[in-house]
Amino acid sequence: MNILVPIKQVPDLVEELEINEEGTDLNRDAVKYKINEFDDHALEEALQLKAEVGGTVTVLALDGDETDKMLYTAIAKGADKGVKVTGDFAGGVTSHVAAKAMANAISTLPHDLILTGVQAVDDRDGQMAVLLANYLGVPHVSVVTGVKVDGGRAIVHKEYAGGVMAEFEVDLPAVLGIQAARETPRYVAVSRVRQVQKEATLEEVEAGDTAVAAGSSVRRMMKPEKGSRAEMIEGSPEEIADKIVALMKEKGLKK
After folding, report:
1. Contact at 8 Å (CB) between 3 and 196?
2. CA torsion angle for 100, 24, 21, 88 (degrees, to 10)?
3. What is the DSSP string of 68-102?
4. Residue range 42-49: mean pLDDT, rounded
5. What is the Rg, in whole angstroms, of the alpha carbon atoms belonging to the chain?
6. Is 173 helix (H, G, I), strand (E, B) or coil?
7. Is the preceding peptide bond at 224 cis, omega within 30 degrees of 0?
């Protein structure tokens, strides 16, 4: 069982984010990155499957700042190999370009099951798994919360809105967009990551042709305006209704 896990870095939302001078992107020089939360769940699910049915786990990431550290951290957690996909990704790329680059790289590697995060905080569309499956020409299920492998098929649990669950049987190879792993993503000590950095070697694969005639671009970014604080209206139902009507008239919403 060859399990591949494409992972990416996203801005750490705990940090204060700044917009660049053009107003079209974050100031990437000031951004602190971390592994995408959902990709971390995909990696954990892959490691759980490896422990359950055997095989290998390979993590892949587009080349960029701190990509090596992220891949070494994944190896420290239990992945067998890290692959850096090289190409021109400066300033970030759309989900379509990222998926095409990943698909080109994955097509050169043995693969039975591909797990990736169902979405990321910075891609605005959550389409990575869908596009990746399209470019590879394999089945896809997203919003997955459970995976079992049985021979040449996978039994997956998919979550719908309102907590409705469904079970799918998918022929392998396939791409699954993982929403949550069966276990909380494991912690790895910094000392272990440093040890892996000394012992492991990352492989490199060319992204190849990533030209795609699709995707979206950001025309303008801005920080949300601060509104006034909420006001709690107290009193009897009649008094509250009268105050709401008065407020609506005051704001010109009712004559």
Report:
1. no
2. 10
3. HHHHHHHHHHT-SEEEEEES--TT---HHHHHHHH
4. 96
5. 22
6. coil
7. no
